[in-house]
Design brief:
Layout: H1 3-10, H2 16-26, H3 29-43, H4 59-72, H5 90-98, H6 101-110, E1 120-123, E2 130-133, E3 139-142, E4 147-150, E5 160-171, E6 181-185, E7 189-193, E8 197-203, E9 206-213, E10 216-220, E11 226-230, E12 234-239, E13 244-249, H7 252-255, E14 262-269, H8 270-281, E15 284-286, H9 290-294, E16 296-302, H10 306-317, E17 321-324, E18 327-330
Parallel strand pairs: 5-6, 15-18
Antiparallel strand pairs: 1-4, 2-3, 3-5, 4-5, 5-8, 6-7, 7-10, 8-9, 9-12, 10-11, 12-13, 14-16, 17-18
Amino acid sequence: MTEQLLQRYFANQVTPTEAKQVLDWFATNVGQTYLTHRLDAQLGDADWHAPPNTLTPDADRMLTAIRLQLATSSLTTNPAPVKSFNWFNQSMRWAAVFIGAVLLAAGAYWGYQYLYPADLVQQTAFGETHRLTLPDGSTVTLNGNSRLRYAPQWSSGQTRDVWLTGEGFFRVTHQRNHERFIVHLPNRLTIEVLGTQFNVLARESRAKVVLNNGKIRLNVGEQAQRKLIMQPGDLVYADVKARIYYRKRVDAAAQSAWQTGKLKFDETSLQEVAQMLEDTYGVTVVIADPELRRQTLSGTIPNRDIETILKGLSTLFDLHITQQTNRITIQ
């Protein structure tokens, strides 16, 4: 992404194709960091002031709105030109000016709903964990590089739907009217909760669900062709693309120990560990020896950051690990 194109975008002087290019870049981790810094800079600028009778914009809400629309909106290659922004009310128009053309240009495509999306989105960066409370009082702890979408409120009798990509630990509260709680995962996998605590890892076509306590039903496919009732201590693995499914008994607490700053391995293959590092920390892990990939590990190491993890793996399991920027080699 070039600075020249960004400046033309902020001045609303780009073609629809160029606008889509910039917006696609905003959806990346680098683009999200850029947006965060730009919002922080403009919201902290002492040279501007709110017009009378208008509320100061909420930076967090604006950034959440941007993230939601970048993740869910579909732009056409030749949208109809927008000649003016008269459909903004006074407060909205000022808010667009306030944060610069980031919202103004996007408003040409998404309009009024841009600042007031139907759903909320929480997105964690690589290596970041974040705990949030849902409208019903349930809590979710997100692991690094994970995304959760949900409605800002649920009414009585309404199914509580959330959409997860990545890894999260759920503590679901029981409701008086027994409203269902459903976690939607990629590739038409859904989890129906019957009041419980569980850990979910959902990346691309594969998912791993571990039940700590309570009971959940795992549904596979749009018509839920496969239904599986899970019991505490069950681990269910599903790779929809490869059509691999299995269930086994595990130490459920160990599977979600990442919440407490630890990683617990119980006969875990080094290939699985490498995949976890790639998914959670955004690195590339190279294990040249096929035998080493199949080697299993058991033990506990700290989980503060990737440097600590690599040091723990090297010390505890006698591995030679080198790191060059985002490339890690294990021998």
